[in-house]
From TrEMBL:
Annotated CDD domains: YitT_C (cd16380)
DUF2179 domain segment(s): 220-274
Topological relation to the membrane, as annotated: Multi-pass membrane protein
Protein name listed in UniProt: DUF2179 domain-containing protein
Gene3D superfamilies: 3.30.70.120
GO CC entries: plasma membrane
Matching PANTHER family: UPF0750 MEMBRANE PROTEIN YITE (PTHR33545:SF9), UPF0750 MEMBRANE PROTEIN YITT-RELATED (PTHR33545)
Length: 281
């Protein structure tokens, strides 16, 4: 069941990525890095070769090269995401095409295209998958030329952006470079937002009831610390628990009902690994 959920989320992410590329970036010749950007440049010179078709061919070739040079270390999810994105883009181009940009504002199209596709990429990455393409190129550069993965990805995207500059002109090339930069921030923010949980610290005279609610109603474990009040010198229990946003709202409303004088602090935690949260895998 968990695997099915992961593949459903990957597919949703791929639809977002494809929509951002097909309906915002491609109509405006905004080749913002990646195999999709390279496909747009190639499509300009060979119009009969659609973006989706080129991406499918390029990803197949890259997987074969990576298998030979790096080894069979690519997971099923990455293969699915890579080929799935090419297929979804091909379907959108074939059955739901657009003949011209949605607006005449290039910056607006870039922002929406990057936000939508970046959000989709964040969803895909959060399921421990990638869409292949320049990720594979980066791994090859890392193995044979000892670039770290981040720099290798930047190099491959910059090469694609340079191709866009030569093909579509300086203005669109500069917009494409801006898109590459924004895309990285969007992906990071989406991943952090999805994984964010609340660390809640509670000091109350009704700790026993609160502990029972957390364990029985929310199904979460908790940690107990012993603290001493600086003003009263009184020793008290402090409960510490990690919760999703929805669970925190339920706990807050419960505490409000039974002890409206309770002392609560809440912090955002960007990632949690372990039982009840993300697996280390």
């Amino acid at each position: 069941m968990k695997k099915i959920k992961e593949y459903i989320l990957i597919t949703i992410g791929l639809i977002f990525v494809a929509a951002g590329i097909v309906y915002f970036l491609v109509p405006n010749d905004l080749a913002a890095g990646g195999v999709s950007g390279l496909a747009m440049v190639i499509n300009y010179y060979v119009p009969s070769l659609s973006v989706g078709t080129f991406m499918l061919i390029a990803n197949l070739v890259l997987f074969i090269v990576a298998f030979l040079l790096i080894g069979p270390s690519f997971g099923a999810k990455t293969i699915y995401a890579s080929l799935g994105l090419s297929g979804i883009i091909w379907i959108m181009e074939k059955f739901f095409p657009i003949s011209q940009p949605l607006t005449n504002n290039l910056l607006l199209e870039l922002i929406y295209g990057i936000l939508i596709s970046g959000a989709g990429m964040g969803i895909v990455f959060n399921q421990n998958a990638s869409t292949g393409g320049t990720d594979i190129i980066a791994k090859i550069l890392n193995k044979f030329f000892h670039f770290n993965i981040g720099k290798a990805l930047l190099i491959s995207d910059l090469v694609v952006t340079l191709g866009a500059l030569v093909t579509f002109g300086a203005e669109k090339g500069m917009y494409a470079l801006l898109g590459v930069i924004i895309n990285g921030f969007v992906i990071d923010e989406v991943i952090q937002g999805i994984n964010m949980v609340k660390e809640v610290k509670i000091i109350s005279y009704r700790n026993e009831e609160i502990k029972k609610f957390i364990m029985d109603e929310l199904g979460r474990g908790l940690t107990i610390y012993y603290a001493k009040g600086g003003f009263t010198n009184e020793e008290k229990e402090m409960l510490v628990v990690l919760l999703s946003r929805r669970e925190f709202i339920r706990l807050r409303e419960y505490i409000k009902e039974i002890d409206d004088r309770a002392f609560i602090t809440v912090s955002n935690v960007h990632e949690v690994f372990g039982e009840g949260f993300k697996s280390f895998d």
